[in-house]
UniProtKB/TrEMBL annotation:
Residues 192-394 form the Fe-containing alcohol dehydrogenase-like C-terminal domain. This is NAD-dependent methanol dehydrogenase. GO terms for molecular function: metal ion binding; methanol dehydrogenase (NAD+) activity. The keyword Glycoprotein does not apply. It comes from the Bacteria. The gene is mdh. InterPro entries: ADH_Fe/GldA, ADH_Fe_C, ADH_Fe_CS, Alcohol_dehydrogenase_Fe. Its cofactor is Fe cation. It comes from Marinobacter litoralis.
Length: 395
């Protein structure tokens, strides 16, 4: 499973802890940025999460020139174009994206337009299009799952054409990711659960996929351990700042891991299910993870066995016979999902979502086979294989 050659790249500065937000003004001024724009959504603003960001800037004599708070859950080329116009009109010189995956991806896309020029973000879709550094860009995640704050990709919907446009470039990486537990304290239980399972899936697939490497492994296993140790504690005590910080760090670590090792079939199925049935990404990850691990089992037995140490700790690991550790890892993930179902009814099967029709399974399978993530799955996947997994995930 170990590659003889690999590359590892993560130049994003991580500022983490209980006063991380207060460091934003220093980071901005160190890049000669004086007129920042905040990009966020109405939910984040209504929850009061912008207040400490704005206060930190004002206390340092730095004015937030513009706040765009109307980013939709599935951001589009139209939204990106509209924000870019405001940015130019207000003569902004930097961007602070505050929110989940959609706000962060929108911030990345806006940064392309305001740095490269033009009004059509679709022109820059693809990989390797960008040739130079963009404007100063900072990310403050308000969920602990996507890892977008340390990834070099973004996805924006072209509503007119009905397609999702991918963007990939090392220049999309933020100058800094600001990880502050205050930003996730108000997350509802089901979002806390789904986003943490998103991070767990990122880490697990990073640790078991074809392009894994020793450095990505270190980040992946650390992320798995943090989610395993902290998720249920936070579900039972939502205002636990230490636990929230652990989950936020796990998300960032998992993001660094899969950015450098890629993912696999869980993501292929999840992307297809999200597109066809409009289920949240984190939910799809949680739902498919054990079924895909069972499908891949004989190809990933060694790393999956090692994962038990990080999922359950040294006592359970040492007490489990070596030949049974891979299966025990899958059982541990199933047990975690059962506990989440008890606490917030996070679905464990497609049927439990109430939003997927059995008649849609074939369309999901076909779309999943065309997803780029499948290239890095440790086992070849046929249409029949995908259908078998989906039927198991249905019941």
């Amino acid at each position: 499973m170990t590659n003889k050659y690999y590359e590892f790249f993560c130049p994003v500065k991580v500022i983490a802890g209980k006063a991380a937000l207060e460091h934003i003004p220093f980071e901005l001024t160190s890049l000669a940025a004086k007129r920042p724009m905040i990009i966020t959504d109405k939910g984040v603003r209504a929850a009061g999460l912008l207040d400490p960001v704005i206060a930190a800037c004002e206390d340092s004599g730095l004015d937030i020139v513009s706040i765009y708070d109307d980013v939709p859950p599935d951001s589009s080329t139209t939204v990106v174009g509209a924000i870019a116009k405001v940015y130019r009109k207000e003569k902004c010189d930097s961007i602070i994206a505050v929110g989940g995956g959609s706000a962060i991806d929108t911030g990345k896309a806006v940064n392309i337009l305001v740095s490269e020029g033009g009004d059509d973000i679709a022109e820059y879709s693809g990989a390797g299009i960008l040739k130079k550094a963009l404007k100063p860009f900072f990310v403050v995640p308000t969920t602990a799952g996507t890892g977008s704050e340390v990834t070099s990709v973004a996805v924006i919907t072209d509503a007119k054409k009905g397609v999702k446009l991918p963007y990939s470039s090392p220049f999309l990486l933020p100058n800094a990711a600001v990880i502050d537990p205050r930003m996730t304290l108000t997350l509802p239980p089901h979002i806390t659960a789904a986003t943490a399972m998103d991070a767990l899936t990122h880490a697990t697939e990073a640790f078991t996929c074809m392009a894994k490497n020793p450095l990505s492994d270190a980040y992946a296993t650390a992320a798995v351990r943090k989610v395993s140790q902290s998720l249920l504690k936070v579900m039972d005590k939502p205002k636990d700042e230490d636990g929230r910080l652990e989950l936020a760090q796990a998300s960032t670590m998992a993001g660094i891991a899969f950015s450098n090792s890629m993912v696999g079939l869980v993501h292929s199925l999840g992307h297809a299910t999200g597109a066809i049935c409009h289920l949240p990404h984190g939910l799809c990850m949680s739902l498919y993870l054990p079924y895909v691990l069972e499908f891949n089992l004989e190809s990933i037995r060694e790393p999956l066995s090692d994962l038990l140490l990080h999922l359950e700790g040294p006592e359970v690991y040492s007490a489990t016979p070596a030949a049974r550790r891979a299966e025990a890892s899958i059982s541990s993930i199933r047990k975690l999902r059962d506990e989440l179902y008890k606490r917030c009814k996070l679905p464990r099967t497609l049927k439990e979502t109430g939003k997927v029709l059995e008649s849609q399974l074939e369309a999901i399978a076909k779309m999943a086979l065309d997803d780029g993530s499948i290239m890095f799955n440790p086992r070849e996947v046929s249409l029949e294989d995908a259908m078998t997994i989906l039927r198991r995930a249905w019941v």
